[in-house]
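Lecture notes, unit on binding sites. The following record was shown on slide 14. It pairs a sequence with iron/sulfur cluster.
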Amino acid sequence: MSNRDDERPDENPASTKSLHDDDRDPLGLSPQVPSDIPRGLDRRKFIMRSAVISAAAVMTGCARSETERTAPPPAAESPQTVATSGTGAGPVVPLSPDLDVVKKEKGPVLTTVDEFYKVGPGPSSSHTIGPMRITYDFYQRATKLPADKLAKATALRVNLFGSLSATGKGHGTERAALAGLVGKEPATVDPKFLDGLRDKPDQVFPVKLGNKSIDVSLKDVIYDATKGDFKHPNTMTVKLLAGDEVLLEQEYYSVGGGFIEWKGYTPPKKNPPKYPFKTMKELRTYADDNKTTIAKIMLANEMSITGRSEQEVNAFIDKIINAMVATVKSGLSMSEDDVLPGPIKLHSKAATVYKRAMDDKYEAERGIGALSAFALAASEENGRGHLVITAPTGGSAGVMPSLVYGLLEVRKVDRQKIRDGMLAAAAVGYLCKHHATLSAAEGGCQAEIGVASAMSAALVATAYDAPSLVVENAAESALEHHLGMTCDPVAGYVQVPCIERCAFGAVKAWTAFAIASNEIASRHRVNFDETVMALAQTAKDMNSKYKETSEAGLAQSVTLC
Ligand code: SF4
């Protein structure tokens, strides 16, 4: 790997101003939108395009010319774009503008590693871990009701909407929702409990609420409307009932990566970060100005936001690293004849690919084969519903673990470098969440595997001591080459294309690192913030059939027999 510490990007005059000179939301509309709308362009599309161009200008410091800002698009928009803009025939799941994930946070990134890297049962952070956290949250709220109210309770009811209803069966959403309702947490649940629910779906469990015990079963989790005016594509409600009377009801949203929100949600109050940043450009400027790394800036922020010591942060990251290694090992140890749950009858292949790759004549082929096998192993564990780590989601849970395993267990890279890599990777994931989405139901697979690949590229570059610009370039490149990737899981199961896709995400991450560490870094033409803007815009424009609904793509073309 080349050592090009002295390579810095050409400074744009706009970048010489303070990071805080412009505190507008990078996705903000009003001050940036010109009033003259070119002929032939409808106002809504024009405003959206202008907003994206303006936001890119704010994030990158590159002003756009009047001609660029007002020129009509080079070609007519595709039928797919028209369908998702609400004027065509395609199904639309509109996002409420007052939902926090849509509004986008105005301030600096405040996400922390323990919120971001979550351990829980596969196969999907949004359809398994999120719903389980939601029902567990409701269970806790219900236990706090006054005793006289609880004494009247007769039933608990969960209703799943949108994508949760459309593909929930394939994800085991009803089992995850029931597990949370009976008081089980994602990080500690025994996957055998969930397997037991699959094998014996008629089981009944008593839920203790005060002095009252309420029986619940899978019949209390209802697959409701798949289409409607939902605040988020992954919407669900949970109710505590006394006959027909509702004692407690909450509407929740599983917004991706295992994150949850609810009606009236406001983000928790946190301490300010030591280095407030909203963009990769700002983050990297802090690192470069302080002659340090992105990882060190992230560590300082983590400590100031949470009040934790460096040892405590490292202890948490070690837990995640160890869990990632364990998931690869566990996946590789599965029999080559193992068949994953569900109607696809997909055979496990991680162990076979690994063994055969080790017999390859050339070292490079052995390396690519082994990396792919590690990703397949962790992703197959996700398909089994075993414990995985959101990095950033369950569907993409094979990507980062494969690189962590390869670096730590195969290349024997120092653990501290892996910790640093985990922090740099987290920064990449945070920024994608902050300005775009981690939810396939909002943005397709680019938001899952694409972000996972970008995070992994940052991990590898950091672990190999690359300068901050190379870390950014590697992450940018990996994300760029996943833009537009749709989510179309066959039969609603996170197996095809998801498992192999994790392997491709891992290999692309390595490719991105290989290019970024060998090119002349300052000549890299696209910056990370611009690509995140493209991710957000592509997510908005993508037809909802390709957003984890199994209504199109491979989910329709693949025949199961
Ligand atoms: S296709 Fe991609 S986004 Fe969709 S479930 Fe599979 S891994 Fe997740």
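Take-home: The two ends are 48 Å apart (CA to CA).
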